Q: What sequence folds into this?
């Protein structure tokens, strides 16, 4: 029995064609929309210093006066959400984490921690007047109590200059989620 | 038409001999089913389908080359992949493509084209994987500068054992981790958010050696399979085997290693020597052994 042209196409060309289209889409999204080269169907494993070692989310609670307190401790499920988001940070991916954070009760030490400035080589230069309460997630709020603060999530990427051995963080994107923006 | 499996690999015949004496389709199906079970998606839908399929084939070996079985496996893998597409590694996409290729090959039995379908796709995917990967590396400034592998050696805990074996002082890795952590801390301010880190010339040299080795070997493997000539295929197989046997010792991406070995084995079944085929079959076992927790042991001692 001889296959027709459609069967020949399915037998020999369909899957490679899909693979090429998916790879092109992955290349586009990683170039223009922050999808990591490690994910999404390209062949860019070990092609770019752009994985969870070099991508970070910083989260803050911002009050009415614009004062920010950093969230440094997440629950287990929030940490898992954050790890997933890092591969392709975008508004729709942020939503579940934002919703969870807005329903979270946070705790901090009684005294705020001082912010210090450093030289490029890592020596302490001075202790600044600025101080932060470092927030840790501890359980959920009772239903119906939407907190009166704004959640700010920043996506940062580590850049490294091997010739000068200088590392730096670049802010790639920021999401601001005010009260009742997420349900 | 390719015959379904009529006998088990028992009866005093070794697994290697059984796989080599079977037609391509049953042996490739058996190895693909192992890939699904050992290194497939961990999501419940796929894991259950793969495990039940394995049991079904053990009970009824003739199911191994049935199109229905492979359609179920391929569809479940596709559902899992599509439902969470942005978090799956690129090689998981390859697994899904390969499952569809096997499903198509089992259907193509009725046209006596199963072997042609498998061999064609094995070659195409080997070329695709290595040349596209090489192209992405050449186009990536962070790869070509050596930055990617230097950061992997310094920051990726999966590479800590390899870095130690390569002679990189673990103190350097610990220091750099702290330095990067200090840079991202909300309690620190650095000029232009930039700081020097404690990498050194040796780390950079190791990173550059890996960078160029990886690029050259990938270009060579992909290019050698393009002409489809016997001498080029032979060289391509030997280089691919070298790549599989060496890469997956430090790089714990075992599913990808198994898939590459499967593609190479499928292509080698067309017209390669039993020696080459056996090297692929042994590589499947080698990849399983590479899972031993030697990395943790090296880091701790």
A:
């Amino acid at each position: 029995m001889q296959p027709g042209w459609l069967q020949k196409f399915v037998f020999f060309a369909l899957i490679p064609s899909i693979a090429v289209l998916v790879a092109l889409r992955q290349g586009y999204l990683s170039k223009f929309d922050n999808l990591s080269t490690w994910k999404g169907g390209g062949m860019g494993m070990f092609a770019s210093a752009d994985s969870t070692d070099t991508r970070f989310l910083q989260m803050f609670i911002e009050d009415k006066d614009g004062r920010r307190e950093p969230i440094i401790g997440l629950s287990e499920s929030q940490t898992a959400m954050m790890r997933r988001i890092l591969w392709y940070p975008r508004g729709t991916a942020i939503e579940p984490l934002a919703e969870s954070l807005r329903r979270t009760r946070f705790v901090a030490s009684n005294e705020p921690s001082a912010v210090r400035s450093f030289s490029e080589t890592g020596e302490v230069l001075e202790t600044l007047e600025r101080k932060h309460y470092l927030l840790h997630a501890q359980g959920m709020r009772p239903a119906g109590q939407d907190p009166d603060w704004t959640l700010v999530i920043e996506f940062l990427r580590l850049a490294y200059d091997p010739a000068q051995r200088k590392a730096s963080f670049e802010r790639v994107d920021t999401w601001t989620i005010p009260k009742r923006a997420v349900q | 038409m390719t015959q379904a499996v009529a006998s088990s690999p028992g009866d005093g015949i070794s697994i290697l001999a059984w796989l080599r004496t079977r037609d391509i389709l049953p042996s490739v199906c058996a190895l693909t089913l192992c890939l699904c079970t050992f290194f497939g998606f961990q999501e419940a839908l796929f894991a259950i389908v793969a495990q039940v399929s394995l049991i079904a084939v053990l009970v009824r070996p003739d199911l191994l080359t049935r199109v229905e079985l492979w359609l179920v496996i391929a569809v479940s893998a596709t559902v899992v992949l599509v439902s969470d597409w942005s978090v799956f590694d690129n090689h998981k996409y390859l697994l899904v493509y390969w499952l569809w290729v096997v499903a198509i090959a089992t259907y193509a039995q009725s046209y006596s084209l199963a072997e042609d379908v498998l061999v064609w796709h094995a070659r195409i995917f080997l070329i695709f994987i290595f040349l596209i990967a090489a192209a992405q590396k050449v186009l990536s400034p962070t790869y070509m500068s050596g930055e990617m592998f230097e950061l992997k050696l310094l920051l990726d805990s999966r590479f800590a054992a390899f870095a130690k074996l390569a002679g990189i002082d673990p103190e350097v890795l610990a220091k750099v981790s702290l330095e990067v952590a200090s840079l991202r801390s909300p309690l620190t301010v650095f000029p232009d958010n930039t700081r020097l880190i404690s990498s050194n010339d040796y780390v950079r040299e190791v990173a550059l050696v890996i960078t160029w080795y990886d690029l050259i070997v990938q270009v060579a493997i992909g290019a050698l399979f393009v002409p489809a000539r016997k001498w080029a295929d032979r060289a391509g197989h030997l280089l691919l085997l070298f790549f599989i046997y060496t890469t997956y010792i430090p790089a714990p991406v075992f599913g990808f290693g198994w898939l590459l070995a499967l593609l190479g084995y499928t292509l080698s079944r067309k017209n390669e020597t039993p020696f080459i085929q056996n090297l692929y079959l042994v590589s499947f076992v080698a990849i399983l052994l590479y899972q031993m927790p030697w990395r943790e042991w090296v880091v701790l001692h």
